[in-house]
Amino acid sequence: MDYKGRDNMEVLIEEMSKSRISTMPNILFGLLEVFKDPKANASHFVEAINKDQSIVVKLLEIANSPAFGMGKVSNLESAFILLGEDMVKELVFSLIVSKNLNFDGGYCDFSAAKLWENSLVVAASNKTICQVYLGDYDDCNYLDFYTAGLLKEFSLVMMRQFFYTKEFKSVISKRFLNKIDLHKIEKEYLGFTHEELGRKLAKIWNFPEDLSYIMGYHHTYQASDVFLSKHLDFLFHTSQVSQWMCYNINERMSERAIKFGYTHSDLKYIDTDVVSSLDFLNIDEVGISSLENILVSDVKKLEKANWLVVEK
Prior knowledge:
Layout: H1 3-17, H2 24-36, H3 42-49, H4 53-63, H5 76-83, H6 85-98, E1 106-107, E2 110-111, H7 112-133, H8 142-151, H9 154-162, H10 166-178, H11 186-190, H12 194-204, H13 209-217, H14 221-224, H15 230-248, H16 267-281, H17 285-304
């Protein structure tokens, strides 16, 4: 990274440090520790979630939405019963991250709101693939896979929120007009890529190594032929398949769901690598169809519960 890249990245990180987003990692991973504790039960989860009343309010709002019936859910205990433990955990994780994000406006085809929707759908798909295909592996906790989906492109959302400069708009514009991959032109205009920013943020926030690699090498991990752990390979290939599946379900969803934050110019990159990821996970054509059916159902439920609707 050259001087320009280091300076620009430091400016962005300094702006982030002044915002509430800087508290997100401690809250997120504090809850993750509670949620993954085999000795914890619903009362422990309720106690941990109750520390953030803004999340409690949103949880109750979703629990009382038409997607889950018309009951009067007035407390977290009832929400756990109605929604189920897994869904409450997923909602909490997504709300912790999204409540400090700015979704105002967009530029060309780029929209932070759509990018966040993409992250939610990738996270949902990651969870399903983990539960259906990786259940035999002891260290594959679905929450790790869900979190990886949420945060894979988090650095790009941060670039939009805290570094919305003329240079960043030039990157978006060139990508849109020339139909080329974003990560291939960021360096030219900004001096750094969102992968490099992802690695930096993961280091500052002391993220687990596997998540750091997903944030920092999701475009280049496979090409680098690096092997750190089987768990990381599972995370990477699962996220790769999930991103691809976001496009596959477009034909079966409404026009609103078509992009999920990306343009079709990215399909070539995703398609060329996804075959090896499907092979790695032992997902065949029947498996793809089954996973797509589950994902379509999940997305429709998210839409009905206004989970995919962000404040603009």
